């Protein structure tokens, strides 16, 4: 049978045979969905996403089966067409299939676009259909953690480790799920797992888990040793050189610093409903997002790639055709000088709209790296509000250095080397000075330490800057039930506290090279 032949060829990786068999299906039954679907899957397996999408769409148009909708949603998500991906995923979710893999695919798309509550239904169905599949259970555990179901998440991670004791992802996720104590921790088990780990990725994540739990229980010397080994391995794996980020900072400064007068912004889109929360990672951006989204007029849209992707898309139209695959690089910044401000603002709002629930009139975009895009935001969205978190430089550097960010993200590659992190902070600081010179007062510089010291005063200042009336609910941000998909999830579900202040002091000797270098740059810790 051509259907079985095509599917078997796909499983075996014989794409030419799959294409021939699927082609015969289309020729014989052009009104049936399966041939188009399998042709699309073959194109996707070959890496031709843009070619695959219309083929799978043709299959959906001929039947609307959940498997076809799920794969269409996945392809659209990979193509960064998030609004269409969400629509396809929700259609598939409404007619949830019995196939566990399709359920997991639906959940992954929903999670990727930030709809973690909806993803739970799909992930639970996947685990119910195949309870022994570790990947399916991991996805469910992560969704439980993001949505505050901590006990359920812990139970799933433990089940995974029963089946796969060296699973680095589960060990690390369990370590950061909550704060460990001297009498309740996994340090001994992690040590045994590290000794048994063969795969580099497992060893890497187990080391990060060990470093985190050892810090929790107060063994800072051992924590730093594991962290140093893990970070060195990660930097080597990424092949990172600080010159990569330095070139981006140089290009942004060259693009925007040509005049002391602010560029004209009157031709931008409105964007009054957008609130950008930016800054170095691990400086309180998630906390401020929770405060603002506790206001009845504000919803949290997540860490959106909407502005970076809008800039990339429009800059590509003005490039020499040699556009790189990186979302942001010096060439993209240079090409972006020709972008029309209004077109950029409108492109951003369309992309951001796909991540909104539209239950409230305002929304937050909490991508920390948007501090690189403040010039674009100021020009393209003249009514948007911008808040930049500032934290003690040494606490910022330490908190960046000790966290394992998305392992393949180019945004945070600097963080796996102490001195690279210090250099990155210095360029961030310099860039923020430039934005303030060009757009005085446009960005609220909000101190994490000040927010902790006087929560109500700084919250009132924050709301005023964002054009929001005072609301007492903003002081109870820890009661906010929306999902949190960042390393700060555990912290922001607790009331305001001083636990995050001066954390770097416990590692003062090890961090001295960074502190001394910053002092030489005129930045005091």
TrEMBL record:
The question of whether Transferase is a record keyword is answered with: yes
Please give the superkingdom of this protein's source.
Bacteria
- Keywords attached to this entry: Transferase
Q: What SMART domains is this protein classified in? A: TPR
Cite the Pfam families for this sequence.
Sulfotransfer_3, TPR_16, TPR_19
**SUPFAM superfamilies in the record, alphabetically?**
P-loop containing nucleoside triphosphate hydrolases, TPR-like
Name of the molecule in the record: Flp pilus assembly protein TadD, contains TPR repeats
């Amino acid at each position: 049978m051509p259907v079985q032949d095509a599917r078997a060829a796909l499983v075996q990786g014989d794409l030419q045979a799959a294409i021939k068999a699927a082609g015969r299906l289309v020729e014989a039954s052009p009104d049936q969905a399966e041939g188009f679907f399998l042709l699309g899957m073959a194109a996707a397996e070959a890496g031709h996403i843009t070619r695959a999408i219309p083929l799978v769409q043709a299959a959906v148009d001929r039947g609307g089966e959940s498997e076809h909708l799920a794969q269409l949603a996945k392809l659209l998500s990979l193509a960064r067409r998030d609004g269409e991906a969400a629509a396809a995923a929700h259609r598939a979710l409404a007619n949830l299939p019995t196939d566990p893999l399709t359920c997991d695919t639906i959940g992954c798309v929903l999670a990727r676009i930030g709809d973690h509550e909806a993803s739970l239904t799909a992930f639970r169905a996947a685990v119910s259909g195949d309870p022994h599949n570790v990947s399916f259970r991991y996805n469910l555990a992560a969704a439980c953690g993001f949505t505050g179901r901590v006990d359920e998440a812990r139970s799933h991670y433990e089940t995974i480790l029963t089946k796969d004791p060296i699973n680095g992802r589960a060990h690390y996720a369990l370590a950061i799920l909550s704060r460990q104590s001297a009498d309740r921790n996994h340090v001994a088990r992690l040590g045994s797992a590290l000794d048994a780990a063969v795969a580099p990725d497992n060893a890497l994540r187990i080391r990060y888990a060990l470093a985190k739990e050892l810090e929790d229980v107060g063994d800072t010397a051992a924590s730093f040793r594991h962290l140093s080994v893990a970070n060195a391995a990660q930097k080597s794996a990424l092949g990172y050189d600080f010159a990569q980020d330095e070139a981006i900072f140089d290009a942004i400064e060259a693009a925007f610093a040509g005049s002391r007068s602010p560029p004209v912004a009157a031709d931008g889109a409105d964007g009054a409903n957008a609130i950008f929360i930016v800054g170095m990672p691990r400086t309180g951006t998630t906390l401020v997002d929770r405060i603002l989204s506790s206001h009845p007029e504000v919803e949290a849209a997540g860490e959106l790639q909407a502005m970076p992707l809008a800039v990339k898309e429009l800059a590509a139209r003005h490039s020499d055709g040699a556009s790189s695959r990186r979302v942001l690089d010096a060439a993209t910044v240079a090409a972006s000088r020709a972008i029309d401000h209004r077109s950029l603002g409108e492109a951003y709002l369309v992309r951001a709209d796909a991540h909104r629930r539209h239950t409230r009139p305002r929304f937050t975009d909490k991508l920390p790296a948007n501090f690189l895009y403040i010039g674009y935001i100021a020009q393209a969205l003249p009514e948007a509000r911008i808040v930049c978190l500032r934290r003690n430089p040494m606490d910022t550097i330490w908190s960046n250095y000790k966290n394992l960010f998305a392992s393949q993200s180019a945004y945070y590659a600097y963080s796996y080397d102490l001195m690279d992190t210090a250099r990155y902070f210095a360029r961030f600081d310099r860039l923020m000075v430039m934005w303030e010179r060009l757009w005085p007062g446009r960005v609220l510089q909000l101190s994490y330490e000040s927010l902790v010291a006087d929560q109500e005063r700084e919250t009132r200042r924050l709301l005023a800057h964002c054009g929001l009336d005072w609301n007492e609910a903003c002081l109870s941000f820890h009661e906010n039930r929306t999902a949190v998909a960042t390393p700060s999830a555990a912290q922001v579900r607790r009331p305001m506290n001083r636990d995050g202040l001066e954390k770097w002091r416990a590692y003062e000797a090890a961090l001295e090279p960074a502190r001394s270098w910053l002092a030489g740059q005129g930045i005091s810790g």
